[in-house]
Amino acid sequence: MKEDKTLLAGLDLANDRIQLSCFDWEKGEPVPLGRLLDGEREYEVPAVLAWNSRRREWFFGIQARQQAELGNAVLLQDIVKKAALGQEYICQGVEFSGEELLFRLLVKVLACLREYYPNERIRKLVISVEERTPSLLEVLGKVMGRLGIEEDRYIIQSHKQSYIYYALSQKRELWMNNVGLFEYGREGLFYSQITIDKRTLPYIVGVSRKDLTSLMDWDMLEEEKNLESTFSNIARNQLHKQMVTTVYITGEGFERPWAREALRRLCSGRRVFRGNNLFTRGACYAARELAGQGQMEEAIFLDEEMVSSTVSMKVYRDAQVQDIIIAKAGTPWREIDVSLDIIPDQEEEIQITTQNVLRRETKEHLLSLEAFAGRPNKMTRFTVRFRFADGDTCIVTLKDNGFGEFCPSSNRIWERSIHL
Hints:
This protein is α+β, with helices and mostly antiparallel strands. The chain folds into three domains: about 5-155, ATPase, nucleotide binding domain (Nucleotidyltransferase, domain 5, 2-Layer Sandwich); about 160-280, Nucleotidyltransferase, domain 5 (2-Layer Sandwich), CATH 3.30.420; about 310-420, Substrate Binding Domain Of DNAk, Chain A, domain 1, CATH 2.60.34. About 25% of the residues lie in helices and about 40% in strands. The chain is built from nine helices and 27 strands. Strands 1, 2, 3, 6, 12 and 13 form a six-stranded mixed beta sheet that branches. The longest helix has 19 residues, at about 100-115.
């Protein structure tokens, strides 16, 4: 692996299992990574730990379950959920925080990277989670800091986003029409559909997700009653009058014998692919894109977590007037926090431009600098900060920094919301 193409990794972090992959530059695709256990590689790892208090020893994954079954250790489950909720564990009289256990879990998982690539450094790690809740993002940020992985080297995205990256990294003929995904696991049955608007360049790619658990939950799998016909009816209803020619299938629920005939029926008129590593591979493809090594410039991904407008600000820099891009359409709004220091030169307002890629319209927004009137020209410095309250609302904050001894700061802050 060349030095300028250091490790690009994708980690699927679900509450019940974890999968890790790394981009292989020779093969041109992600490859699974797993630790060696009893002569075999463990690729889909149970997201559990086990604690032996007498020997003060930790076990991980399948080995953790084995030790717990033998009575040698206490099994600790639901680590991802409890860490996000800030909950603690009391294990054999010892208290562990959810954050501490999540840290220990990821130490074990990421050790695989050192085993495969002992002399390489992570350039970009994409962590794919079921849902990007603020509490989970916060605790994962703390854990990444403890692992020594800086903010610019990792990103956390949802399964929906990983699904998009995976689907659009396949051969073009597989995604030129809409693309479907059925997930069936212990949490229930879900259907996601990618739609692609190819009327403009770049393409606008969106994804919707439906919870179908009320129609087919995990308990039905245990009973194994009418699963084949139930799923076939559900799939027929979801795909009715939809131009879906490619369908992906994932989740342990589809590994049972009942699924064979149901998936055979689903293949009528479309291509169907089944596998359980879609999200880790999608995260790995995302790592390639985010590291600037990708091939998806012709597409903008949009869902409720992403901004639908490109936001820019007109400034004079390097002896010319130019537009500084603050946020690009398709960027998760929670991740945008950009600040610029400005010194006005006879300007009375700031010009901010928004370009909505869905409505294909451009708007100019002017922010008055009247509050700074009366000061000598070029003797005022202030900070403009851009954040988002949601995908459609940009919050612009102006902070008066003064200008050293000549013009002391008033310490005042102005704030305005811009609807995109």
